[in-house]
Structures are given as structure tokens and as C-alpha cells.
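Hi Y.,

Following your request, here is the sequence exactly as I used it, all 204 residues.
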Amino acid sequence: MTPAPPDELMRAVEATLFAAEAPMSAGELAAYLGGADVASSLAALVEHYAGRGIEIVERGGKWHFQSAADLAHLLRREREDVRRLSRAATEVLAIVAYHEPVSRAEIEAIRGVQTAKGTLDVLLEAGWVRVAGRREVPGRPVIFATTPAFLTHFGLASRKELPGIDELRAAGLLDPVDQALEQALEQALAQPVADVLAMDGDNP
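Below is the corresponding structure, written out as C-alpha cells. Let me know if you'd prefer a different format.
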């Protein structure tokens, strides 16, 4: 039996996502396509591309095409090497991801050491961390949060999918010798931001 051809709305959603310069939310797609209900079309496209070389995924509420994760090794030669994050930047990124929005003073309280401005600059330039405003406390410190690009890079639909320490260790993503990073992640998971809010009157 010949499969039914895709409907026009599904084709329009597919073409729009393919041509888009940046990931789009369902609301943005609907508005672009004249208020159409795109939910069923997105679901059909996800099914249509499942198991293929490219797929349609949702990351942080935004939809886009990406190459299949299991084919990443074939494409690695074609990609520019991303600068490796320093240990300090990795620790800061983990703390922001698990505690956002969070200020520099809160990050320093969790890490137990001062955070150089350049460390946050690296994460901002990478597009993984953004300035999310200022906290309404004395001194009004700047607060930071992760971005949709962070979710996309790490293959997460939302922050709810962030792994716990046990999952990271089981997956072999924590080097047993690298105690400093493991300790920072454990602190990020275990220490409530409320415990360090009193420090917000320090540096923004």
C-alpha cells in the first residue's frame, strides 16, 4: 500500500524549519503560517524523520533540524574544533545550569573560590550562558541563565533532562581522578541557592 502523501501544512512546516536561520517555537511557526495549528504536523514530522540521517527535534521549546546523534562521528572531521572549556568554566556552567538564574556571588559561594570575569565571558561568547537580568536585592547583581543553544549542544529538550551525579558517573562522563569537577557538580546539585542569597550584595 502506497503511504499517503504529506499534507500541505506538514510540508509548509517542514520547509519553514528547513529555511529558518534559527530554531522556531510552535507559536512562531503558527504565526508565520497564518495561525495554523502546527502541533500535529510537528508530531508527524518527528515520526517521519525518526531513524533517518537528519531529524526534527525540540530543544528548549524551539524546533529545528539536526543530524542524527549516532552519526556525529562521521561529521566530526567537517566541524571546526570547539575550544575546550577550562575546569573553572565547566564548573561555572554546571552551577548555572542547575541553579539558574544565579549571580556571580552565588556561583562563587557554591564553588568556594572567586570566579574570574573572563570565565563567564567565555560562556557568554559560546552562547551557552546569557545575562538574565538583575536580582532585586541591594546592589542588584547581574544574574545568569543558560540558553537554548546550551540545550541544543548537549541534546536536552529542557533543563529537566539534566543528569544527576549518579547518571554522569554511570555514563563514564566523570573521570574518577577529576575530584574537583565532581565535587563542584555535587555542590551544585545539593546546595540550594537560598543558602547563598545573603552574598548578593557583593560584586554584580
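DSSP finds ten helices and five strands in the chain.

Thanks again,
Q.
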